[in-house]
Amino acid sequence: MGGQPSGRAKLPRLGRAVTITFSAVRIGAMKVGIVVPYSWSYWGGVGEHVELKVEALRKLGIETRTIIGHDPPGSFTRVLHPRHGRHGRPPADVIPVGRSVIVPANGALPNIVLSPSTPLKVKRALRRESFDVLHLHEPMTPAICTAALAYAEAPVVATFHAHGNLAWNAIGRPVWGFLMDRIDHRIAVTEAARESAARWFPGEYELIPNGVLIPPEADPAGRENRIVFVGRHDPRKGMPVLLQAWPEIHRRTGARLRIVGADPLMVRLALSRLGVEAEGIDPLGFLDQDALTEELLAAKALVAPSLGGESFGMVLTRGFACATPVVASDIEGYRDVMTDETGVLVPPGDPAALAEAVTSLLADEPRRERLGAAARKLAQERYAWDDIARRLSAIYERLT
Fold it and tell me: Is 249 exposed, middle or buried, given 0-12, 13-18 or 19+ CB atoms closer than 10 A?
């Protein structure tokens, strides 16, 4: 899995193609193309990871461009996506290459770009930008990442995030699995993600965790009497479990529930289906990074009732960084992140156990503050983006 040559030239000789390998000389800052198969317009863990990574790499003097989907505002987008998103113009460093559609996968509803024009747009972007390195996220996901692998002329780094059966590879591996040979360095965010990827594509994977945005200050004391859920309304995120537990939590604590990420309309529909009153519940929809940080800094606890299919638990470390203790499902992926000193694990899909854990935590303020302080310390030691960016930079340097 070492570096590959940065350029190849073919010269005719006696009727045969002879490959001559040479090393390109980089002048100025390294330029990295970050390739994401999803839509910039809709919030998700990989998108958040990429945006924070871009910021951290820039601090090291590395120039980046992000190749990703984009769903501009309009009636067509509303038909394809019954959820709120950010539909303004992407930043100048984002290169949009097509609209996305919702594709059920691994218990989630990701927005994957499958536009027929996407491969050609990716090809043009790669030629125009002349990247020193490409860094793909979920590289076996069409159409953006598979097109980038097909047309790549620079060394390729790939990060694997997903955990689970990844059944789509039953189709993907025989059709475009050969493109894995173009990847020069494989990264998995957890051991669970590594095992899931290696099941389909055996090989060596370096473990580098997701980084997290760490605010300069966070005090676990003096919080508002409220808890926060952060996630889409995807089935695996377990929002209905929390909504079922909510009447008991609200009765015993008087707290409010702030729901971030899920479409407010879908929250109301879920409440209606479950027969749960909306008293004390504030559906906030999508929030930008600063607003999300403010919510986490104000809450007494973060609740993550996911049912499975989580490879890492970025939302957990996001809470840790804000000195907010976590009540989370005892599932693979979350266990890699949670400790007894940072929060409480509960059986997945059990509203009664979830309600008991949350109410007990909110009733014991010294314990809650102790867990919050330990959570922030853990985030600073293990998940600071500055350290992770330096590790990525070293990989890029080795390949160029």
Answer: buried
Chain segment 153-207, per-residue pLDDT in tens = 999 999 999 887 777 788 888 999 999 999 999 999 999 899 999 999 999 999 9
Query: Residues near 289 by Cβ (< 8 Å), separated by ≥ 6?
Result: 48, 51, 52, 213
Three-class SS state of 100: strand
Which superfamily does 226-382 belong to?
A: Glycogen Phosphorylase B; (3.40.50.2000)
Work out the widest C-alpha separation in the chain, in whole angstroms.
85
In Å, how far from its chain's centre is CA 112?
A: 14
Task: Report the DSSP beta bridge partners of residue 302.
Answer: 228, 326
Report cis status (omega within 30 of 0) of the bond before 143: yes
CA 242 – CA 261 distance, rounded (Å): 15
Whole-Å CA distances, 90 to 68, 93, 312, 371: 10, 8, 27, 38
The Cα–Cα gap between 183 and 199 comes to 17
Residues forming beta bridges with residue 19, ordered by sequence position: 10
Q: Say whether 226-382 and 30-211+384-399 share the same fold.
A: yes
CA proximity to 208, closest of 4, 6, 30, 396: 396
Distances 6 to 9, 34, 185, 187 between C-alpha atoms, Å: 11, 17, 14, 20
**Those residues with Cβ within 8 angstroms of residue 253's Cβ, 6 or more apart along the chain or in another chain:** 225, 358, 359, 362, 363
Q: Are 210 and 391 in contact (CB under 8 A)?
A: no
pLDDT in tens, 347-381: 999 999 999 999 999 999 999 999 999 999 999 99
Query: From residue 336, how far is each of 311, 312, 364, 369, 376 by CA, in Å?
Result: 9, 7, 26, 22, 16
Query: What whole-number percentage of the chain has pLDDT above 90?
Result: 74
Instruction: State how beta strands 63-69 and 16-22 pair.
Output: unpaired
CA atoms within 13 A on the CB side of 103: 17
Which amino acid is present at 212? Answer: V
Beta-bridge mates of residue 227: 257, 301
* In the chain, where the domains are located: 30-211+384-399, 226-382
Q: Both tokens of residue 256?
A: 């409010």
Give the class (CATH, top level) of 30-211+384-399. Answer: alpha beta
